[in-house]
């Protein structure tokens, strides 16, 4: 009798929810049905992986070359300013420019709001704004005139003018060159002749302050510009003389800005002999700034411009490998800037100031290329 009582006790202990007072079984709570979308029916933007800390080649000092005398009409030089807080999203409405292309690089028109979904940190957000208007935009032509580009300067000038030829009358352009210094050659304007004259003023010199050029363009020249804006960067990616900006600080700033960057990449390694020369700091009097750059530094430079493009939603173009040449590449850039879809949403959850929010955009059509910014930084509460 005791054994039966013990068995009964354990039965009641293990199955207390299986029986009601009436002795009937209680049905278990049904598991919600999760409908998984078929990845073959849509296309998505691809978020970039978090950027790990990296070892960047030591920056080398400035050249010993004597300064050129300044004329009265000399282009204005940008002052080097101390670092400031990076641009952060400081409003409830987050607006994301989105570019959609087929696998041949052709723009996909006539998409509707219902064709898009947007996710923040993996959670779908309600779209509050959707726009497709063909609007004017602002571009900075940021031209590398370091000595390593001396064999490409005419090609770079021609390429910059070819890009301007693709623009519409209302689009505005600023021309900036950089070598050891960063200088504005043509202020922001839509006057084509002023732009062409600015491009013609470009001339190579010692040093390559690429990081400081990107820093100053984002923080000073583009900060107050409204509307769609981009940087078309003509460079080989190698920096030799920046002191107050770096690979990582400029990438952070680019990622947090609302400026798209389209590098036009020139591989000048072969132009300059393709040899690994000793650092200029070893023989500063006989090796000009920009010469003596190793193959490893060229690899870092190429990676840098690839990341600039990827983290801002732009693309890298190489003149020698672009289908249809630079003219076709520039047509693509101007079309992309002008015909983006703009999607806005109010985040369903607030983040902490300084927190990075990841963004993913989905289009309900397969086999498309979707490019957009993949993150933003939460700003301070107003």
Explain what this protein looks like in three dimensions:
The protein has 382 residues and is α+β, with helices and mostly antiparallel strands. It folds into two domains: 36-49 and 80-134 and 339-382, Immunoglobulin-like; 136-334, von Willebrand factor, type A domain (Rossmann fold, 3-Layer(aba) Sandwich), CATH 3.40.50.410. It has seven helices and 15 strands. The chain has helices spanning 2-14, 153-165, 192-200, 210-221, 247-256, 295-312, 325-338, and strands at 43-44, 76-77, 94-101, 116-120, 123-125, 127-131, 137-144, 172-178, 182-189, 228-235, 260-265, 341-345, 356-363, 369-372, 375-377. The strands form three sheets. Strands 2-9-8-7-10-11 form a six-stranded mixed β-sheet, with helices on both faces. Strands 1, 4, 5, 13 and 15 form a five-stranded antiparallel β-sheet that branches. Strand 8 (172-178) and strand 9 form a beta hairpin. Helix 4 packs parallel to helix 5 (247-256) and helix 5 packs parallel to helix 6. The longest helix has 18 residues, at 295-312. It is globular and about 55 Å long. The protein starts with a helix and ends in a 5-residue tail after the last strand. 36% of the residues are buried.
